[in-house]
Amino acid sequence: MNAQTLETLKTVSAQYELPGTLLEYAHCNNGHINDTYHVKYLNGDEPVDEYIFQKINGFVFKEPLKVMGNIKEITTHVKARKSTADCDIISYFDNREGRNFTVLEGNYWRVCHYVRNSVSHETAEDPKVLRSAGYAFGRFQQLLSDLPMDRLHDTIPDFHNTRKRMDDFFEMVDRDPLGKAKEVTEDIRFFARNREIASKLICMQEAGELPLRVTHNDTKYNNILMDKTTCEPLCVIDLDTVMPGLSMYDFGDAIRFAANTAVEDEADLSKVGLNMVNYEEFTRGFILASRDFLSEKEIENMALGAIVITIELASRFLADHLDGDKYFRIHRPNHNLERARCQIKLAQDMMLKFDAMHKVIEETAMMTAI
Ligand code: GN1
Ligand code: MG
Questions:
Q1: How far is the CA of 359 from the centre of ligand 2 (A)?
Q2: Closest listed ligand to the CA of 217
Q3: How far apart are CA 280 and CA 285, in angstroms?
Q4: Could you tell me the distance, in angstroms and rounded to a whole number, from the CA of residue 45 to the centre of ligand 2?
Q5: Angle formed at CA 202 by CA 61 and CA 149, multiple of 5 degrees
Q6: Residues 274, 353, 207, 370: what is their CA dihedral angle, to the nearest 10 degrees?
Q7: Which of 80, 10, 5 is nearest to 36 (CA)?
Q8: What Cα–Cα distance (Å) separates residue 192 from each residue in 91, 170, 195, 320?
Q9: pLDDT tens by residue, 266-309
Q10: Can you list the domains of the chain with their CATH numbers?
Q11: Does 32 sit in the ligand 1 pocket, CB within 6 Å?
């Protein structure tokens, strides 16, 4: 534990009515953006209360007020609509001033319960749990389907505007601030070849063929807390990017992460590819929850959504590598390059398996049709 961090956490804590005395914290290391702390309190001698404190990354989220405003809107809406059988979503405590955030030295902090008996996984050991995870993310979209979109702010404008992501990527290559582009020419070629594919869905959306919905936009498997004992989804977390988006990006981003045969930053590319068993399980769960509100056109484009979002992530990781790793936190040299190459390999494998991916979607949609 770092003494200064402990002091900061205590100062934040004083803004809330939390029972007991702050005892210790552990830094949670699995997100790439915000700083997250698991904080323990001593309440008398026992029991021990546990909370999550999080500092919002101000470089990534330029307007944290909008982020926290969205979260209030979303949690109020979902909590009023969900049944007890539904997976929960995370919400933050109000502080002494009645706000769901606390500003300290220009940084925005928020505090929530630590969800007891929960775990967040980086990989899915048992493909069966992916069916429930797919259901939870599909149901999340459904619960938000009647929230008027104009109630939400764009917390990161053009977040999944993949055409703009490609433009930004090539701009970074041209600018090449650290002179690293020459080391990744083969990788750059991948984006030149696939630039058009990457823009397909955004073009369809602009042409009115695909609807905008309220979507999560960051559906990594580790953004669902799972019950340690039953392995069932307990709580959807990381609501910072919930805003209008395309349904198939939520589907696709989850596949990108949970149906990779390797981890997101695997350096041994021979291990990377699409795991069709995981893919099928997640797909079945997601479609079961979303079948009655998704259009045929959206269903038709789900497999493409997985490819497009994987290309997007590859481009963002590589752009950040060229830019000196300002956006995604890294844990070793060339980490963003390794992440990018892993995503390129995964996207390539998805392209090879595209027909099989599509078939699973068609069959599932047919089976669940009403
Ligand atoms: C970031 O914060 P985290 O790790 O949940 C990123 C996502 C990426 C993801 C890749 C706001 O999410 O878009 O898909 O890393 N979040 C933001 O692992 O950019
Ligand atoms: Mg996130």
A1: 30
A2: 1
A3: 9
A4: 36
A5: 55
A6: -90
A7: 5
A8: 41, 9, 5, 17
A9: 999 999 999 999 999 999 999 999 999 999 999 999 999 999 99
A10: 3-113 (3.30.200.20), 127-369 (3.90.1200.10)
A11: yes
Residue 40 pairs in a beta bridge with 24, 50
Does residue 226's CB lie within 6 angstroms of at least one atom of ligand 1? no
**Residues near ligand 2 ion, CB 5 Å cutoff:** 218, 238
Q: Which atom from ligand 1 is nearest to the alpha carbon of 30? A: 4
Which H or E run contains 165?
helix 162-175
- Chain centroid to Cα 115, Å, comes to 18
d(CA 217, CA 215): 6
* Ligand 1 mutation target, pool 220, 224, 250, 309, most atoms within 8 A of CB: 220
Residue nearest to atom 18 of ligand 1 (CA): 32
302: which 2 tokens?
């789900």
Q: Is 175 helix (H, G, I), strand (E, B) or coil?
A: helix
Atom nearest to 32 CA in ligand 1: 4
CA–CA separation, 49 and 23 (whole Å): 10
Residue of minimum CA distance from atom 12 in ligand 1: 32
Segment 211-237, tens digit of pLDDT: 999 999 999 999 999 999 998 999 999
Instruction: Report the alpha-carbon distance of residue 284 to residue 360 in Å, rounded.
Output: 8
Q: What DSSP string describes 190-232?
A: HHHHHHHHHHHHHHHHHTTSS--EEE-S---GGGEEEETTT--
Q: Supply the pTM of this predicted model.
A: 0.96
The model's pLDDT over 90-133, given as tens digits with 9 standing for 90+, comes to: 999 999 999 999 999 999 999 999 999 999 988 888 888 999 99
Q: 20-29 contacts: CB < 8 A, separation 24 or more?
A: 20/44, 20/48, 20/49, 23/48, 25/1, 25/53, 28/52, 29/331
For the beta carbon of residue 14, count every other beta carbon within 10 angstroms.
13
pLDDT greater than 80 at residue 369: no
Size of the chain in residues: 370
